[in-house]
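Q: Structure for this?
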Amino acid sequence: MIYREAGQFKTSYAADQALLTIPMDRWFVMGLVAFAVIVMPIIGSDYWLGSIMIPVLILTIAAMGLNILTGYAGQLSLGSGAFMAAGAYMAYKVATNLPWVPVPFAILLGGCSAALAGIVFGLPSLRIKGFYLAVATLAAQFFLLWLFTHVDWFVNYSISGVPSIADYHLLWDWGPLVTGADASVEARYLFVLGFAILLALGARNMARCKIGRSWMAIRDMDIAAEIIGIRPLTTKLSAFAISSFYCGIAGALWAFCYINTVEPSAYDISVSFNILFMVIVGGLGSILGSFLGAAFIFLLPILLNNAPTWFGIELPADLLSEIELMLFGAMIIFFLIVEPHGLARLWQIGKEKLRRWPFPY
Amino acid sequence: MELLNALLVSPFAEIFGNPYFFMEVLINGLMAGVMYSLVALGFVLIFKASGVFNFSQGVMVLFAALNFVGLMDALSAYMNPVFAIALAGALTVLIMLGVSLVIERVVLRPLVNQAHIILFMATIGVAYFLEGLGEMIWGSDVRPLHVGIPDDVWFIFNEQVMVQQSDLFAAAVAGGLVLTLALFFHYTRTGRALRAVADDHAAAMSIGIPLNHIWVIVWGVAGFVALVAGIMWGSKLGVQFSLSIIALKALPVLILGGFTSIPGAIVGGLIIGSGEKIAEVYWGSAFGGAIEEWFAYVLALAFLYFRPQGLFGEKIIERV
Amino acid sequence: MKLRKFGLMVAGAAMTFAAGAATAAEQYIPSLVYRTGPYASGGAPWADGFADYFELINDRDGGVDGIKFKVDECETGYKTDRGVECYDRTKEGATVYNPLSTGITYALLDKAAADKIPILSMGYGRTSAADGRVFEYVFNPPATYWNQLTSIVKYIGDEMGGMDKLKGKRIGYVYLDHPYGKEPIPTMDVLAEKFGFTYDKYPVAPKSMTEQKSIWLQIRKTRPDYVIMWGWGAMNATAVKEATNIRFDMTKFIGNWWSAGEDTAIPSGAKAKGYRAATFHGVGTDYPVFADVKKYLQDTGKATSGGNKIGQTLYNRGFVNAAVVVEAVRKAHEKFGNRVVTGDEFRWGMEHLDITDARIKELGMVGLMPPTKITCENHEGTNPAVKIQEWDGSKYNVITDWIPSMTQVTRPLVEQDAAAYAKEKGMTPRSCN
């Protein structure tokens, strides 16, 4: 009886249209956000905030992006890493060449450039489907990274080719430092968290309004969707654009708030695969799943790497690395078998169990 | 203007100005394509029979080659090298069969009827697992592999055109492999069962073909193909981790040829191999080089634009 | 602050993650390594050599001035984000970082400076970090990529019988298409202009490292006088193999020091005979210190990974890298006393490091380790130089003495790039006087 949906009556249209219609859910999510915004920066150590929370939140944004494309619109993509790179390089370019643009807007502009790239590389989706399309998005992956390595304009003709991100304040010279090595971990964390919350809200709302519904119609059966008047061109391309926008912002944040440099290998194909993993393990078509999936896939290898030392087992370093790899593969398979609909589905099942608790019948 | 010249004029001038060099590039490109086809074949076999896009094929190539070279080195201390090669080959086939048995039991059977993308992800999990296992058993060093494949080059047409013997050998092996597979599919009971399964799972099951056995066999055959590819690539480069990334070179071949067609894998390989080499040699400098990595994908995309199911893929019929 | 402490206590149970720091009496050396993945064949021997030297110092000498070392490996898989995570996890009490990856080095440049922990990137990383006025916490002895390239060109000139013979010659430059491979290009431009040779660029895409046919067919057609290679991972072995296929004269094919591993030449075996590569340390085990390695590590079974990589090029590189760390700690002890030194104190030790020939002799590493003198201004060392090693069909032999680099060519470039970096970051370089 801890959680219940019955007896929750709505008396106004506003209540019916609320993002979370059940007060319990609402309070829970609000509490979680409050915890993340207020309590986490206070109790979290540098390591927890800087190396766990920040990357997980950034990857969550990327996973939400891919989830929009794959989970909602049903278009498989293996090019997320490239769109992240597009966001990162353009945000860097804007931040260094247009000093009057404050850094959050530079990052947004990075996202917009990634969206443009997404539209261009989404064009084949009008004719190509399924795995053929997935392999076609690999073209984006390889082409964009090649472009950023080869065109020195993107890195301001720097000789080293791997520019560092300078320290930027939130708005021009105002506010705390939010990027670069001298920014405090708390500021960077809150900055990233702000993006994550806003984008999650955006994704959640898009998913339930017209555009999201047309995505899902295209996903479930594109011909049928076309017959009922949904235009595949705009729908598919909008999914590509918005998905890439999210990925682009994630990529820019990755460079600005986490690794502090812009370099091509931070966005290579293994990143694309990892983000796809996050989406699948978290749950296709679920915003919550993006959070859970990102946390799971990012933390699992770190956990596996650390676990033996907690139990006082001394393993040779190379053996440890290999076991880590094997366990990671095994855990992926295990999770897919136990719950192919992802962690979000597990969460739902948990809620259903709680609903009947303590008297399941 | 200069760019247009570099794109439209000077490459053709170079091609016609030095046709021997063009021939050399073309031949070597075709041969490289054959090597890609060897990897792509494994993908096709599995996709055809079980609808699984098996991303672990690249790692299976590495895993098979690691086992083969490890066993061969261990055995050759005790016996004549020819026997050692044969025995190591046989043992590796057994190991790959064992791997496919385990994959069928542990991965495919519990995931039956799941969405394609879930199975695809599961095979990436398999890839991680096999990679870790292979390195754990055999280490991460580069191991040279010598099984007596001729490893030299011929210069023909007055020393103007270079042909690598190992590439010719690989082409012969690939041809033999395709022939064997064709014979196997046409004239054996199992082969016919495989084709039935590839056509229609439900229908095949209803006439009493045990799906699970078929999957083990198909994955085993793919493992065998992986071993062949592993030996060919391994004798070229030494057996090392990078063998697993050749899967990325096989993917454009796969989409170009179609996921379900064995001839498609071969023809796709030839087109991709020659196309990317010619592009790199003649058009690469106009772009600043290293274009072959994405060129293969763009070429495949261009083909897909006209035939969305690949050159030899089955026509997709959509109904509401 | 109190609230924060309370919070730390509450979260303490969940935070055993961060508890990697060393106990008080040991000098803590976090080691970011990669023993799996596409670059493991280079990463594993380096990591072994690095760990083994500390083990040797601990077992043979009981540490430095009584202070033992604790090496803590963290697997990065050559991935930048994992490297940053490893860094954050281990930075408490860390002495120095040796990331052994271009990407991770770049990512840590600013972070480490903010945390006052030095980075020792021996033979990789950001070249312009040699300017110690801007990059206070980064050290890249004994030579940078740019200097290495000048030494290689000088070697080529010497072989031809004088630098003036380079005029009108053609050099092929085969490189990994990544910031690492592109980095020497500005230096190459300067040298090409200075000595009047031309060069062709042949980038190798990172995911197509094993497919270089098109490049080597072009080289076969253009017939350059020399080929210089800036490769890593599987690219090296493929390049050497393709070079033997087109019958390129292997003695005219020179790799940089990351193309100098055994894995580069082994797949081609005897055919690669004559292949040359630059190096900044000795090869093989023919040095007195390796007798101790055998006695204390191999015979006792303490050698990392069973000691099967001892004497490989990259093993020796890790070994020498560790020796530099130990010498810098020793130097720091002179000023700060025989205790565990902090990162900042270690930086002082690095900055005043002077490894002389006499000292190298004491270490039993004559020929294995380059003499290095680092100053506040010059974090690369004042005499950058490389040797050339040659593959004889089964192993490498060093065939030259130290070839000094043309620092007068590279130093202005270094200072220019460092100044650009300082400008972009809005910082004022410190004064070294």
